[in-house]
Amino acid sequence: MQIIYTLFLLASLLSIFLYKKPLLAQKVGFGLASLISLYATLFFFSNLGETMTWKLPGNFISSPLFRLDSIEMFFSFLVSLIAFAVSLFSFDYAKFYEKKANLAVFASLFNAFILSMLLVIASDNVFSFMLLWEVMTLISALLILINDGKDASKNVMIYLGIAQIGAFCLMVALLIMASFAGSFEFSKFADLNIGFGMSITLFVLLLIGLGSKAGMFPFHVWLPIAYCQCPSNASALMSGVMIKVALFAFIKFSLLLPQFAWFGYILLFMGALSCIFGIIYALASNDYKASIAYSSCENVGIIFLGLGGAFYGLGIHSPLIALMGFIAAFFHILNHAVFKSLLFMLSGNVFTATKTRDMDALGGLHKKMPITSIIFFVAAISICALPPLNGFASEWVIYKTMVMGGMDEGIASRFFFTLSIIALSITGAMAIMAFSKMYGSVFLGIARDTKCVEEAKEVSFIRLVPLALLASLCVGIGIFMKDVIGMLSKIVLTLIPQTSQSVYGLISMPLIIMIMLLCAIIPFVFLYLLKANHKAVRVTEPWACGFLYNKNMQIGSNSFTGDIKKALSFILRYEQEIKIDGYFSKAVYTQKAHDLFWDKLYAPVIHSIMVIADKIGIFQNGRTNLYAAYILIYLCLVLIFGYYYL
Amino acid sequence: MDFFYLLIQLVSAIVVAPLFDGISRKLRAKFQSRVGPSIFQTYLDLLKLLKRGRTKSHSTSYIYQISPYLLFVSAAAMFCALPIVYGAHSAFLSQFSDILVLLYLGALFRFIFIVAGIDTANPYAGVSASREGTLGFYTEEVAVICLVVVMMGAGSTNLSFITTLIQEGHYGYAIPSFSVAATAFLWVMYVETGRKPYDLAEAEQELQEGVLGEYCGKDLAIIDVAILLKQFTMLGFFLVIFIPWRFDNPMLSLITFLAEVGFLYVMGVFIDNFGPRFTINNGIKRTMLFALSIASTSLALYIMGI
Q: Quick one: pLDDT at residue A186?
């Protein structure tokens, strides 16, 4: 098993040594990454449910222990599965960034990023965990910088800032837990004797620390900024698996605390808020990549709903609810990793072909890129949780968990579970609008800006293979829902103390597909019996009520969501700008959605910090005698303090 | 055998639905002091559409060609999810008859409807696709609030199980939250049938059917049948949960069910004909808020354990 980690390290080093030949380094780096991650995928999958440990060899200051239990094994499998598809995709895709950065560095960082995620999952010690966690954050920040642009450094600072808030809370929580356990190794953390107040505090600290990395509301502001800045393969990896690593750590650490039902309520509440705000901004955005990024916030919310059910089940000692909740959360984690990385890679295909991220400039791309378009259709259906694909399968289990949780007698549990079901269903309705708008305005209709779309062409075969692989996973996981649930239940049973429950009363996805196929025959039978007209279709201009048709008559992505934006205007702020120069010139109309929480929460804080920093700045004036005076004043203060208080 | 009955359930609905549509058109004409078409007019319309040639806009792609069939498949699958000729004893089909499956098949219908509208590049189709999505956003939340009460009250998401439970009297109108939910749910299901003040089938250009502006010939016929079937399913969804009359003989339950749905469908004309017309935001504010507040009342009752 150590060989996987070593190989990733070697691949990373090898690609950086080839920095004089970036094109070769790109082929070698990403090629090796795909081979190693394929091996890792097979290895972790075949060892699911087993426990493995290893120590860092060599003469270091400490020799930390690394340990893979069943859930660590599952998450390692997930990371390497998505890494395999993404690195195969990057094998050709990374060439697009040839002029922006040295591809050797890109390939090296990519390998190092996969390695750091795998190591974070495996580490079994507070210090190695925190160190690797920070390394993972830094490498992902460097990956964002690969696509150097106007606001790149500002965007990276926002990402790092939120990551640091999170890391601080996480560190505090882990140190307190370690002091209770009297050890820094996670495997000795079991059965901590912590009271209710302290547990809730630790839980909230963990939620802030890891939720901020996972893109939970209200820490979601970095998602669109970072993912739009990144190259698409890096955003696929970050959104597909890095936020899953954060969720993994959250599950692992919060299970070490004594369980209370309130943990479940907090998670349900935050999950419901995350889903609704995430999808509202996804719906309002006209940038397809930002929209996909915001939908990560939504999906993390959905996963938190499942986890909320699980923690509630543990809190009230109902193993069945806990089992269903964990299965739901893990199932959605798996599915989200698959379809979100797929969508980000597809957005990369669209961007390399058209060089624009604006939905209002695109259209009619299906004719130019048919395979990308069909795969996008599958991914969109899957992320909207429509039957019979995988998104529906996992959301169904989440709904089922909520229903089971809401059947209890207590008013609090009924309140939280019913509200979260309603949040989930509103999210579903809005996700349909968001993704039908995205698919429609990018791939269907007529190109709005002919310049962008004219030269677009289908991407190379090697970039389509991993996409097709993930799309077929979307279909396959949906069809074999029962088997996947069976596999997951074996993994999550290790998280629930003393139980032998099993899941029952599932829907049968093959039956749904069979009935849909049966229904598909009926119209053909009717058409045949009633002798329908089968003549070839005449091609015409779209009908425009007698006026001459113009491509600008199509609905734009702003007006498509106009009504719903009006209704949601109390939380959704947008700027409208209309420029009219003269009677005969073209009017320019722009509308940009604002993130309310950025404006109200982050911008004032950042502004005040800047002001304070400016004020403090006068102390640093470069005069040596003043610095000596500072030291003198400090010494005096310490003496006074020491004399009176110590 | 269950599959055979399921096929009969589906085919008989397809055959009977246009008749009720014809009756409601005739009735509406009478209200407006017109003679109106014969009650078989919808059949004749469909037959005529089948014989006509087709055109398509040059912008269209594969979505335009397959969407009539996809719409039909999702509507028909929704209808099959209603446990009319089969019940909880059919363990095999019960795995399909699930409230969430039905809801999300409806969502699939809406997704394809919107995407097909955008594909034609027709300006009216785009506007009505947007309208369809917005309306779906409003109806779904009210419908789900009502269904949450039912699902949690009955303790299952399985539709055939819930039907049996209510029919045998273990759960039902004696519980206040359930009976309040029934009102709001009927309201939403009426909205889903696409009538005034939420929609206006005759004003095809700007409202719901605007999506179909470019469709013609057999494609339009299939979509028309799919929409009729979806409207029937929505009313049937109400009946299956809130008025479950089922008999041991599957054919008898089927006939009663079709008569009930047809009755509700025709009765919709009474609201439709006297309802005012609103712009969408205005209409939603004036009318859906009532449904939402009724549904929320029922939810509050459930949470308090009544």
A: 83
Please say if the pLDDT value at position B204 is more than 70: no
Q: What is the ipTM of this complex?
A: 0.94
Cβ within 8 Å of A, B 146-205: 148, 151-152, 155-158, 205
Beta strands in A233-388 (DSSP E): none
pLDDT at A79 over 70: yes
Q: Which of A499, A518, A541 is the last residue of a domain?
A: A499
The Cα B221–Cα A427 span in angstroms is 33
Count of the separate structural domains present in chain A: 3
Alpha-carbon gap, residue B159 to B151, rounded angstroms: 9
Residue A51 placed within a domain: no
CA distance B149 to chain A (A): 8
Question: Which positions in chain B touch A506 (Cβ < 8 Å)?
Answer: 95
Q: What is the dihedral of CA B212, B218, B224, B229, to 10 degrees?
A: -140
Q: What is the mean pLDDT of residues A501-511?
A: 81
Same domain, A603 and A589: no
Report, in angstroms and rounded to the nearest whole number, the Rg of chain A calculated over CA atoms.
26
* Contact list, A446 vs chain B (CB under 8 Å): 59, 121
Predicted local confidence at residue A545, as pLDDT: 78
Asked if residue A312 and residue A347 are part of one domain, the reply reads yes
| Residue A604 structure tokens | 């004032």
pTM of the full structure: 0.93
Mutate to test the interface with A, among B58, B94, B101 (most CBs of A within 10 A): B101
Q: Which domain holds residue A407?
A: 259-499
Is B130 part of the contact surface with chain A (CB cutoff 8 Å)?
A: yes
Interface check for B26 against chain A (CB to CB < 8 A): the answer is: no
Using CB atoms, pick whichever of B111, B124, B302 lies closest to residue A432.
Answer: B111
Please give the pLDDT value at position A336: 94
Nearest C-alpha in A relative to B149 = A418
Answer for the pair A220, A291: CB distance below 8 angstroms, yes or no: no
Distances from the Cα of A125 to the Cα of A25, A55, A512, angstroms: 34, 11, 46
Q: Are residues A576 and A495 in the same domain?
A: no
pLDDT at B209: 65
Regarding whether A612 and A586 lie in a shared domain, the answer is: no
Chain B CB within 8 Å of residue A10 CB: no
Query: Are A564 and B134 inside 8 Å of each other by CB?
Result: yes
